[in-house]
Amino acid sequence: MKKEPSIAIYSGEIPSTTFIERLIEGVSERGCTVYLFGVISKKNNYNPKVKVLGYKQHKLYKLMYLLRYTFLLILKRPTEKKRLDQFLATENRTDLYSKVKYYPVLYYCPDLFHLQWAKGIAEWAWVEDFGMKLVLSLRGAHINYSPIADRELAETYTKHFPSISGFHAVSKAIAKEAEMYGAKPNKVTVVYSGLQKNDLVKSEKPKNAVYQIISVGRPHWIKGYRVALDACKQLKDAGVSFFYTIVGAANDMELMYQIYVLGLEDCVRLTKKQPFITVQQLMFNADLLLLSSHKEGVANVVLEAMSLETLVLTTNCGGMNEVIEDGANGFLVPIRDAILMAQKMKRIMDLSEHEIATIRQNALNTIEEQHTEAQMVNGMLSFYNNALKDQP
Questions:
Q1: Cα three-residue angle 149-151-155, rounded to 5 degrees
Q2: Inside any domain, residue 94
Q3: Which CATH number characterizes residue 335's domain?
Q4: pTM for this model (two decimals)
Q5: Per the domain annotation, does 118 fall within a domain?
Q6: Which of 14, 73, 286, 349 sits in a 20 to 30 Å window from 88, CA-based?
């Protein structure tokens, strides 16, 4: 009987983001043993194939955790421990935190180590020297603009990318970005994010008296909220009735000031970050999701909105045109163009019920065709198997 591989899915925090948690659940349900290393922030109920091997952010807890794995390595893997200790000394990483992170990984030595965030590559490149295949997910900021703004990070990528066993890209656009830093094209696999079935779509969409627009995400310049607010000013000056909510941007001074200067206090609201289920409900209740970003891979929030039958207007950034066909299943607008954004929002508001129903159905079809959880899991398992077969 073929033995399923053991896979570490590492994001550094347990539990992780919604989409990484879906990956963990899907891969483990297919029979693979999944190891989770890192900081335990709260308890989560996983199936028996998921082995939670993390630690809590308490010095005494970490010390006891380290003593346990120090003893186990001395007992079971003394040669490998000596090699790792020599490496850590060379890299000046002999502190408690580094050993707490690395010793459990070396002890369990999974067949494959899947690092979720590219910025951590220098910390984990060593696993390849101990027989583990290292694969890396390429997501958003870590590959789109961080290495452009941070020369040292770009040099780190250029140093390590050529030797990595495989790259998972969330879009074709991001795959191209990775090649700029030495990722070999034949080692990069595009696997789109996958969604679970959503029970909210069984409910009837609300009939809002005022047109509701929503954006979701941290108040970072890359999200383009300043352009979105300028577009809102265009709408208000044109006498259009609407209300715009930015979830996750509460108390951002720059945005608050812009809202005040533009006189948008009565039609724009900034809210604090919300739990995932609350965000889903807010998106379901909205008429339009606006993604005003300057750069993205494929924004998960857009996929969620499409699955919730909420219309989407997104800038044509990154891989968004791999999901959205303008006028068919959503709408595209150039980046940094508030005038065209406002014009497109006005056009969307004027759609007939028949046109809205058609676009919503087309959006659902897109999700079913390329963004289901089953497709994501199948794609990732194929990616893992190819990386494991790859010869040095």
A1: 135
A2: no
A3: 3.40.50.2000
A4: 0.90
A5: yes
A6: 14
